[in-house]
Every structure is written in C-alpha cells, then in structure tokens.
Specification:
Number of helices: 12
Oligomer: single chain
Number of strands: 13
Distance between the termini: 104 Å
Largest sheet: 5 strands, antiparallel
Radius of gyration: 46 Å
Number of domains: 4
Helix content: 40-55%
Structural class: alpha+beta
Order of helices and strands: HHHEEHHHEEEHHEHEEHEEHHEEE
Shape: elongated
CATH topology of the largest domain: Heat Shock Protein 90
Strand content: 15-25%
Bound molecules: adenosine-5'-diphosphate
CATH architecture of the largest domain: 2-Layer Sandwich
Length: 450
Amino acid sequence: MGWLIYRIAAAVLAMLAGGWVGAVVGRSTDAPIMSVLVGGAVGIAALVTWDGLRGQALMEWLRGAQDADAPRSAGFWGELAYRAERSVRLLERSVAQEQTRLSQFLSAIEASPNGVLLLDAGDHIEWCNSVAADHFGLDPLRDRRQRVTNLVRAPAFVSHLQSGQWGEAVVVPAPRGKGLLSVLIRAYGDEQKLVLSLDVTEREQSDAMKRDFVANVSHEIRTPLTVLAGYIETMSQVPLTEVERRRALGLMGQQAARMQTLVNDLLTLATLEGSPRPSPDRWVSVARLFAQAEADATALSQGRHRISFTGDDAAQLAGSESELASAIANLVNNAVRYTQVDGQVDVTWGLLPDGGGEISVSDTGIGIAREHLPRLAERFYRVDGSRSRDTGGTGLGLSIVKHVVQRHGGELDIQSEPGKGSNFRLLFPAARVRYLEPAPDPRHPTIAAS
Ligand code: ADP
C-alpha cells in the first residue's frame, strides 16, 4: 500500500508544482485561474510521461532475453524492476537445478544394464537409453517421437504392447535376429509406458541346452533299461534253458555296463565342470600317461590293430594326472573303435615351436565328414549313432576331452577325412610343459590326415 500513497503524493506534488508555475506565469494574464489549471495538468502529464518512459524500459527488458541487468532507477519503477529481476533469476536457477537433476537421472538410467524405453499414450518414443536402442535397433535421437510399433515390428512385441496385459515379462526375438529379449512393460503417468528390456539370449540357450541334456540322458538310459526290463519279465514268466539263461544274463550285463559307462562319463563331466582348474605346478610324466593308455588300447584292440606310442621320457605336463589320462584314453579308445581291423593307430608326443606341447592321436579309420567337425565335441553328438552305441560309446567322450584340455589352458584340434582317417591333437601351452633334460628341437606337428 505504501507505494500507492507515494504515487498519489507524487501526482499531487506534480500537480501543485505545475499549478504554481501556471500561477506565476498567469499572474499578468486575464485568466490566472485557467493558467493554474493548465499548469497543474501539465505537471501531471509530465509525471505520466516520465513514468511511461521508465515503464517502457522495464517492459523492453522483460520482453528480451533478460541476460543483462534490469533497468536500475529509484522509487516505484526501481523496486518493480528489482523484484521482477529477482523472480526471473530465481526461476532460472530452479530450472537449471531441475535440468541438472533430470540429466543426472537420465545418466543413471543410461548406465543401467537394462534397456529402458519411455512411450507416451500413443506409443510414441519419448526417450530411450543406448541399451534399449541396441536391443530394439533404434536411434535414440532420430527415432524420438516415432511410433514404436512402426520401428519394432516383432509380432510378439507388438501384440504384447497392444494387449495391455503386462503382468509378466515376455521373451521376444530381438530385431534383425540378434538373439532373444525379455521385455517387461509397466504403465505410469498419463497412460505412458515404461518398457524394460534384457538380453536373455545366453540364458535361453543355456536353458535349451539343459533341456536337451536331460532329454538326451533320458533317451540314452531308456534303451538299456527297456532291454533289461524285457529280459527280467521274460525270465520271471518263461522257464529258460541253461543256454538261454546264460545268453540273457550276458545281454543284461552288457546293458548294465552301458548304463554304468554312461553314468561314469556323466559324473566325469559334472566333476570337470564343478571343480577348479588343475594346478599348474603338479607335474605328470607323459611317458607314464602313454604307458597307461597303451595298456588300455591293447586290451581294447585285442591285436586287431597296429598301435604305436611314441612318448618322451623327459617330457612332463602340468595338471591333473587323472584328467589327462582320461582325455588320452578317450581319444585312443575312439581311434581303435572307429578304425577297421588291421588299421593303424599312432599316438605321439611333440614339442611345438612356441614351447607348448602336443599329444597327437591319429588313425587310419573311417574318418569324419567336414560338416560334423565343429559339433563333434558337443555332448551326445555322434556322426553315426548306431556305430557309436554298438562299440560302447556314450557320445560324451570328446566332450570330456575338450573340457580337460581347456581346463589345462590348451585346445583340441581335429583334422579328418572320410575314408582316410583322423587326427586329434591336444595342444598345451608352454607354461604347462617342461623337460627334465634339455628339450629336443621343436618340430612342427604332423597331421596324419587332412
Ligand atoms: P562316442 O562315445 O560316440 O564315441 P565321442 O564324443 O567320443 O562319442 O565322439 C563323438 C563322435 O565323433 C563319435 O560318435 C564318432 O562319430 C566321431 N568320432 C570320434 N572319434 C573318431 C575317430 N577317431 N574316427 C572317426 N570318428 C570319430
């Protein structure tokens, strides 16, 4: 209210001053009263004009960007300018603070390992982080304001978004066949939607592998079990001659042994997967490993193959003796099983140019077609299922071999040609190879068949 009194007082003063000037000027005229009135009116007009100019200056500042200071003056207009400027500066400061908070918030969402997509009521993209952009094949800037279903066309995603039933996450194929995404939608605000995405390709693959594994194990066990159950039923219902009884027991024994081998291989795999890497400073003699494998191979072949082992008494490998023995046994066992009578099986030790070592098992057997090679070490993968089973195979041997060599920091190399033979090499890094006497000159590994 104070400013109003000052304004009225200023107007009265301007009017009195104008009136006084009018009275002085009009003293010598015929109309002194008129002169006083005109003087008063001129005084008020001068005050209004001066006010107008100061108001105009403030108005121009308010209409502009308000970067410069507000026009400074005393009195009513000065205070008005000061208060207007203070409000503007407070507003600017709080907008800046909000913007900082918003960008911090968006940076936090940007750092999320999940994809985050914000959609408006019409399913237009309001914002997305780079993970969501990668998952859905979007461009965070270019695709803003675009309807998401025009860009992400996977039917499973579109129908889930349009269903409005968003209780659970759904798994949808990622665009451009880049795996699988788990998508969770939540409503917020004014019919807006928050879409969270997670790459579940590996998880789904591992689930599928587990399902396959259980199905394979069940399948492998079912056949011998069916045979056993059949014989048990026959023997309990039909009186058998001594010869028949012996034959039945022999076949039952074979099936039981098959299941035992399978269970042993499964346990070996489980142990390999669940135990720490073999120690790098426990040394195993290659010659000893070869001696053990040679005895097994000779027993398996029973003189039907020519088998040669060329080790090196001074060579040693760092790792687990039982695992290495099992890997070599599996390879030698395969070489004998997949090589015809009178075929050749050679097992050699060699030093690689980089100081690593290799155990090579080559045969002149049936060989393997090129397309099977990449999958050979998968669990239960067989080129010829019936030959594998007839010779007592479980389909897990090479899987065990690959695990063992990888746990020793090495790799399994397979070269083969149908009808000519195969060469399986276990390649070990230099850190796991040592010689008790000066090492021989490294030779380049030989390949029996390629
Ligand atoms: P299996 O118990 O069936 O032998 P493996 O995992 O040891 O299982 O081998 C997988 C498949 O690789 C075999 O079924 C066989 O078809 C093929 N294979 C392995 N070793 C040889 C080899 N030396 N010669 C030919 N084929 C082989």
